[in-house]
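Journal club side-thread
Mid-discussion, someone asked how the predicted structure for our own chain would compare to the paper's figures. Pasting it here so we can look after the session.
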Amino acid sequence: MNIVILGLSITSAWGNGHATTFRALCQALYERGHSIVFFEKNVEWYEHNRDLPDPPYCKVRVFESWQDIIPAVRRALAEADVAVLGSYFPDGIAAAELIANSSVPVKAFYDIDTPITVAKLRSEGATEYLRSDQVPLFDVYFSFTGGPILQQIEEEFGSPMAVPLYCSFDPQRYHRFDKEARFECDLSYMGTYAVDRQPKIDVLLRETAQKLPGRKFLVAGSQYPDAIDWPKNVERIVHLNPQFHAQFYSSSRMTLNVTRRDMVMAGYSPSVRLFEAAACGACILSDNWAGLEQFFVAGKEILLPQSSEEVVAYVTGTDESELRRIGDAAQTRVMAEHTSSRRAQQLEGIVRSGLKQARGMRIAI
């Protein structure tokens, strides 16, 4: 298939989780014989932090102005079997109209931020990248979030088909590595700063670090305010290149996962970091939310502390063999269900069904 994707970014993972998701998916699709063109708008914070400017598995078109790139997008769409518009694409509303008016057999919206999108569609009728009246224009609504919200997207906004397309990981990049001294720690956390996430990080990591001054903690991620008072035993990495993410997780005795508020409220919203950490055999401590049991078994494949006291108990009272057992169980689970190849197969199945339907309609006409 010829696939056109318009997404937030694939060339830079700075401050976003979209890039690693698109990279894993596009590489898996390429390895399965598909051709991909990826359109990405040039923005300052990505332009100066491009860790993968030229992916070998897709053709990237970085553009400055939507008006200037429209002819190139139209040409690509004219040759495409499927067009995918990603959430937070800067010119998403205009791009949705262009896709809707094209002859592409299968038109898809890929929402990597489903709860945020749905909340804004309900309250304001639009986001910066999609209007509520545009949802029915897409043949399929791929969602990072599963569960009840899928039916809501169909019933409230008129999507013909809303299906989960969870994030995934590339097992060639994410697996257990030998520990690296610079990343060795008792508890790590990786994620961009978010106001709604920080209170949980304060409780589960900062308070734990204060109670365990002899232990080492590591926080990697950008945009954290200078006003945050990190304990002295918490090392900060402002931005960690994705090429070192697997070593980061592999070197942590435990790693923390904290979910955005909108994702918690919707449930069924695993983050890409969750699967990547599991793929590296890390023992994961996570906040809890509806649907998490569909992805990991509590106590066997993941730990779910609710207080800093519980985290302290895990850090000080769990031996290395138990940490390894939990990490191995999580790794086995995601290798079976959440690799990029598995996700590419799921996308293929939905798209091929749509292609058959579209071709059948043309023949009938």
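Post-session note: Residues 146 and 348 are 18 Å apart (CA to CA).
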